[in-house]
Amino acid sequence: MRRVVAALACALVCVLVAGCGPLAQTHHNPGNSHEVSTGRPSARPNAAITIAGGKVSLPSGWLEVAKGRPVSITVTSDVADEVHVHGYDLKAELRPGEPVTLRFTADLTGVFQVETHRSKLVLTQVAVR
């Protein structure tokens, strides 16, 4: 039984390490891939984000929000896409040049990515405490 547990633990560690490897380099280029935002947190629960030429004009770092506070994220893209807030399962279609605003109450604690689906860009993260 111990061998089975040890083998499963080893397999899990290998999967986790392999799964994290390619993303490590993207931490140096925020807004261009599935990476963690590395800037300073913003105490404001609002963000205005622009996507142009495949690049993201980020707000200052990530959004840090107290649990129970309202959050408003406005995204304007130069191409059609879909924006999604993970954990809250909010999504909206992006039409070129038309701002879309996602509003929600931060009632779940944790860190939640806001990303586009087709172009796979992480726009920002919302840290709810």
Write the layout of secondary structure elements.
Blueprint: H1 2-24, E1 46-52, E2 55-57, E3 63-65, E4 70-77, E5 81-85, E6 90-94, E7 100-105, E8 110-116, E9 122-128
Parallel strand pairs: 1-4, 3-9
Antiparallel strand pairs: 1-2, 4-7, 5-6, 5-8, 8-9
Task: Describe it.
With 129 residues, this protein is α+β, with helices and mostly antiparallel strands. It contains 1 helix and 9 strands, in the order αβββββββββ. The chain has one helix at 2-24, and strands at 46-52, 55-57, 63-65, 70-77, 81-85, 90-94, 100-105, 110-116, 122-128. Strands 3-9-8-5-6 form a 5-stranded mixed β-sheet, with no helix packed on it. It has a 4-stranded mixed β-sheet with strand order 2-1-4-7, with no helix packed on it. The radius of gyration is 17 Å and the shape is elongated. It starts with a helix and ends with a strand. Residues 3-42 have low confidence and may be disordered.
> Which stretches are poorly predicted, pLDDT < 50 over at least 5 residues?
3-42
- Count helical runs: 1
Number of strands: 9
Report the β-strand fraction as a percent range: 35-45%
- Class inferred from helices and paired strands: alpha+beta
Order of helices and strands: HEEEEEEEEE
- Biggest sheet: strands side by side, in what order? 3-9-8-5-6
**What is the percent of helical residues?**
10-25%
Largest sheet: 5 strands, mixed
Radius of gyration: 17 Å
Q: Give the termini separation.
A: 40 Å
Q: What's the rounded overall pLDDT mean? A: 73
Per the principal axes of the C-alpha atoms, what is the gross shape?
A: elongated
